[in-house]
Amino acid sequence: MLAATSVFAGMDALVKLLMADYSVIQVLFFRAGFGLVPLAPLLWRSGMRAVATRRPWAHALRSAVGLLAVGCFFMAFHRLPLVQVTAIGFAAPLLITALSVPLLKETVSPGRWAAVAAGFGGILIVAGPDAWAGDLLGAGAAFAVAGTVLYALVMVMMRDMGRTEAAVTTVFWFSVLTLVLTGAALPLVWQSPDPRAWGLFACAGILGGTGQLLISQAVRLAPASTVAPFDYFHIVVSSSLGWLVFAEIPTLNTLAGAMVVMASGLYVMRSERKSAAPRHPAPP
Questions:
Q1: Chain centroid, CA 243 distance in Å
Q2: How many beta carbons lie within 10 A of that of residue 282, not counting itself?
């Protein structure tokens, strides 16, 4: 999950660059097209058997919700700093934890609830008062909030689908359906990319496809409520890229909040290891 969040943070920075010159539909189209590249070795070895599914409607629903979530986040990146969008997006683990209990019948210990709450508190520290003053009620924040809600729903759906569907299957059908839906509207917004843009499109798509594979595998291997807090690591990478690429200098709030977030994630990991460890009866 840590690898997935790092990869997605890199994609976010590339998308922010592209959204300055290209429409969200065109960015989504190439994100999906180049996102199939990481799947090529798997498809080469296993053929279409690797992406065969008996749950086409589940994939269609997951892809539609996922496309809306990604589109909302892309629009938010165009309007707000990377760190602010990421901070708003970190409400998702709370929603995932809440949804995983009624929808997936998962059990969340009080300690893990406390760790998730502490992580959310760290996000509030990262955001700080200034981050919420400018565009919270504007379009940028509205897109970020909508994307967060949709993303949480996608994560829970992936956990349920992961019981029968491989990660490569989920990523393949999401990319294909995104290509179909955005491709239908692409002629209306098409702008010819220059060589630099082609490179950015390719890198963003490959990073996005790789991140999807990693995150799909993560939620298959562990309960969604356990995986979710590690998405907080995104703030560390996002802050670094915002500083390096967009001259968005991390504040003391960002650094302090990141420490709280990372501490909560480490606690969840330690708690999960303890719960997974075999318990032996005490000797007589």
A1: 21
A2: 4
pLDDT tens profile 160-199:
787 788 778 888 999 999 999 999 999 999 999 999 999 9
Q: Rounded distance, CA 266 to CA 177, Å? A: 36
Residue 282 covered by a domain: no
DSSP codes of every residue in 29-80: HHHHHHTTGGGHHHHHHHGGGGG--S-HHHHHHHHHHHHHHHHHHHHHHHHS
The answer to whether residue 217 sits within a structural domain is yes
CA dist., res. 232 & res. 87, Å (int):
9
- Domain span at 24: 2-271
Q: Which two tokens stand for residue 284?
A: 């007589």
Q: CA 66 from chain center: how many Å?
A: 10
Q: How far apart are CA 34 and CA 29, in angstroms?
A: 9
User: Can you tell me the distance from the alpha carbon of 162 to that of 243, in angstroms, rounded to the nearest whole number?
Assistant: 36
> Which of 170, 173, 172 is closest to 158 using CA atoms?
170
**CA 209 – CA 203 distance, rounded (Å):** 10
Q: Which helix (H) or strand (E) is 270 found in, with range?
A: helix 252-276
Residue 206 falls inside a structural domain: yes
What's the domain count of the chain? 1
253 within a domain of the structure (yes/no): yes
pLDDT tens, position by position, 12-45: 999 999 999 999 999 999 999 999 998 888 788 8
Q: What is the pLDDT of residues 227-238, one digit of tens each?
A: 666 677 787 888
